[in-house]
Amino acid sequence: MKRKTLLSALIASLLLGLGAGAALAQNKAIIKLGWTTTDGAQDPYAIAARAFKSHVEAASKGSIEVQMFPNRQLGDEKPMLEGLRFGTVDASIMTNAVMAQIEPGYQLNDLPFLYASEAQAHKVLDGKVGAELARRLETKGIITLAAMEGGFRNMINNKKPVQNPADVSGVKYRVMQNPVYIDMFNSMGGSAVPMAWGETFTAVQQGTIDGLEIPLAVIDSSKYNEVTKYLSLTNHTYSVIYLLVSKRTMDKLTPEQRKIMSDSAKLAQAEQRKASAENSKQLVAALQAKGMTVNTISDPAAFRKSVAPVYEKFRPSIGAELLNMALEQVK
């Protein structure tokens, strides 16, 4: 009798365990996370992705799996952005400039020489300005999880070093498909060539364009030191890279899973920003050692003066109140 009772208890326990496992499998969420750059150790997008995956999977204890798709496996940024809106892409780490195509307020972050330091940028992005941008984007079907750090963008080309605005003149620069970047380079006398990221390396290699503007980490991870000669540390734009998730994907998750996604993104943001800052200190010397000619700019004020018309042109589309709020915070 005791044996039958024991056997019955074991069977019941096994069935209960199987049931719990089935329930866990049934509720498991697969989040496909895409970005356009490499999965290199110092790539800022990849650092963000790995940190997010690690925190989510640890906190969810198996109920969420983050699958990573670097190197444009889910498409270039513009198609991924549309995918986020319609739920065909779960999540992405994406450049701020592309997001401005569906929400003009994001043009704010791309204004040249707006932020003088990473700390200034963090203050704005983590405060009321960042919250307002996130609110606007959510109305388009995309939820902002975190504002990661791409680092300041600099100019690289094969014609000449850039030490003052006049040196931009006559050089064909690839820029993102964003009107702020186009006007920025045109205002300095350059020739702005809007181009998708996937076409850029070959265009530089073949001489179709002379150069581009790009964060230090991406120069290194994407091997642009192999096809460009001059690196000018203009620090013209702070590159914000956002961790985004489709609202449709988020709505399919349980409340507990949604909280894990949000909490993990904040932890990943802090981790990624710290790693990005540490990497930037090493990258200039590394790129110089790989053969690039590196220079700083002598008069940042001259560059700010040359791009002043860009601020006034985009004030209406950004929103005067939002722009003034940001300018007040970076005084």
Verbal overview:
With 331 residues, the protein is α/β, with parallel strands linked by helices. It has a single domain, classed as D-Maltodextrin-Binding Protein, domain 2 (3-Layer(aba) Sandwich), CATH 3.40.190. The protein is built from 14 helices and 9 strands. Strands 1, 2, 3, 4, 5, 6, 7, 8 and 9 form a 9-stranded mixed beta sheet that branches. α2 (44-60) runs antiparallel to α11.
Topology:
Elements: H1 2-27, E1 29-34, H2 44-60, E2 64-69, H3 77-86, E3 91-95, H4 96-99, H5 118-125, H6 128-138, E4 142-157, E5 172-175, H7 179-187, E6 191-194, H8 197-206, E7 211-215, H9 216-221, E8 230-246, H10 247-252, H11 255-289, E9 293-296, H12 300-306, H13 308-318, H14 320-329
Parallel strand pairs: 1-2, 1-3, 5-6, 5-7, 8-9
Antiparallel strand pairs: 3-8, 4-7, 4-8
Helix pairs in contact: 2-11
